[in-house]
Amino acid sequence: MGRKEFISKKPYETWEFGEAIGRELSLGDLILVTGDLGSGKTQLIKGIAKGLGVKDWIYVMSPSFTLINVYEGGKFPLFHVDLYRIRESEIDDLFIEEMLDQGVVVIEWADKARWDKYKLKITLEIMGEEERRIVVENGLQF
Question: Going by CATH, does the domain composed of 9-128 fall within 3.40.50.300?
Fold first, then answer.
């Protein structure tokens, strides 16, 4: 399993890092994103959207209350899932497997459940006011 670490000093650097990830994604990829509140998870996902070619990537927002936002217009639809307000027993009701058949799925608060297969696990850590440590680990794909 590969591991890569990056220090972002500004939000635009987090966007650029996410953009590089987004350019490499394929249909059916599942990305798990973890980190404390305010650690930059949504900023990273904005960059992923940009890398996928989503025109209005700057307007990507966390779906904390809607649970899922779908962004189209890129290479693949981006399904942005937020598990912050959901119990593990409710996750199957989101039909994530079906979303993977149609596009790329990025899950915030992914540590609320166990995942058997995924492309990447990304953990963000607050280092300072704008500085973030971003750790990317390769996952298991079947």
Answer: yes
